[in-house]
Amino acid sequence: MTSRETITGHTAGEIADSVRMLLERGSLRADDALPPVRTLAEQLGVNRNTVVAAYRLLAQAGIVVARGRGGTRIADVAPIASEGMASDTVLRDVGSGNPDPTRIPDPASVLARVAGSPVLYGAPVIDSGLASWAREWFAADASVADEDVHLTVTGGAVDAVERLLAQALTRDDAVALEDPCFLASIHTVRLAGYRAVPVAVDAEGMTVAGLRSALEAGARAVVITPRAQNPTGSSLSQERAAALRTVLADHPYVLVIEDDHFSLLSTQPYRSVIGEGHERWARVRSVSKFLGPDMCLAVTASDATTAERLALRLGSGTTWVSHLLQRLTHALATDEAAASTIAEAREHYADRNAAFAADLTRAGLPCSPGDGLSLWVEVPGTGRAVADALMRRGWLARTGDEFRLSSDEPSRHLRLTVHDLDDDDAALLVRDLAAASSLPPRKV
Questions:
Q1: What are the Cα distances from residue 80, in Å, to 89, 160, 166, 184, 405?
Q2: Which of 54, 68, 168, 369 could serve as 354's disulfide partner, Cβ 3.0–4.6 Å?
Q3: CA distances to 127, 158, 184, 285 from 299, in Å
Q4: Ordered domains of the chain (ranges, CATH)
């Protein structure tokens, strides 16, 4: 900043607005350091607490980040990574996280069954057929009495989680998130201005010590994936789920959101962390993995208060989910041919991931297949270095850095989506991974 382009103001709001103006004019750029609190307070003739409050407003808006001894700096506004296929690339994409389109049930066979009387304003938000099926779907894994379960339908799991957090939190509230974490959850928390509190994940899911620490740090909500955690593929063991329930028992009004995104495709049992008597909870199940990403629908089972608040933004005529889509979901979910396709897909994903993990292990890169659409592969050195080496061999992989909340050190992982590779391409990728990791060649 030049001498004429300095931060001005006498209130926290005025100081924050001044920083925003300098940023918009290009006088401040990403990673520029703002003056220390004491220095700026002296320059402006204000109390130090006023500057602290101004910097807090800017941090809540995502404009600045506090870096300890590195001071308060303008945040890097580079786009956050998102799920899906990479566009405009000649590389073979093994980082997409997509289901196999050939293993998604064809809706054509049931489309004629979903036509019915038009739905008008004032109709129930959730279609009766879908509600009946969903209630049975949730009942098998219920940890609370059926009469205490209330259903809400949203435009997908991400939509559900965003609305659930919005009805319970305000800006700067702390949210416990798995680390590494699903990309959409990172987006949701950051863009809403909540504080993400990272909770480590191991082979048995969210760690007990990590959850306890997050709650002690004031987390008002917890987002957890009971099985097929993305990106690690881990699922809660029975012992881990019980231990997490014990921790949460002392915090009955903390909102617990269980995101069961893989649901019907999972090979693992559903183990809930929602204990009997927990007051604020929600269990979200999307259909996008087994019926396709274009089927933007999820059903949430929750306590009455959460359901009531969630439904406020889902009234007829505002943001309801199309009843045609609901009826199509119900028709496919109860169709024998579609059920067979889903079962075959579940077996396919598990078998292909297990075979690839075994080949990697034989090549000198120990790997556990976990559950889900992708594999979480630990590599020597950094994931970025191995991914760069893979690019030179024609592959596009995702590094673990994209999924990290705490990034003091570079990730040593890659997330690979390999279930659609044939045997020859899978063997080639294993060899290229070994070479990119500077491992001596082995027979795969």
A1: 19, 20, 21, 10, 12
A2: 369
A3: 11, 11, 18, 5
A4: 12-74 (1.10.10.10), 92-101+338-436 (3.90.1150.10), 117-333 (3.40.640.10)
Cα separation values, 409 from 95, 203, 207, 289, Å: 21, 20, 20, 32
Residue 437 is encoded by which pair of tokens? 């990791």
Distance between CA 328 and CA 68 in Å, rounded?
52
Beta strands in 212-330 (DSSP E): 219-224, 255-259, 281-286, 298-302
- CB 284 within 8 Å of CB 274: no
Residue ranges with strand state E in 131-232: 150-154, 174-179, 195-202, 205-206, 219-224
Query: Alpha-carbon torsion 223, 404, 397, 158, what sign?
Result: positive
pTM across the whole model? 0.84
Q: What confidence tier does 357 reach under pLDDT thresholds 50, 70, 90?
A: very high
Tens of pLDDT, residue by residue over 383-405, are 999 999 999 999 999 999 999 98
Residue 91 contacts residue 391 (beta carbons within 8 Å): yes
Region at 350 (left for phi over 0; alpha for psi -120 to 50; beta for the rest):
alpha
Asked if pLDDT for residue 316 goes beyond 90, the answer is no
SS3 150: strand
**How many residues are listed for the chain in this entry?**
444
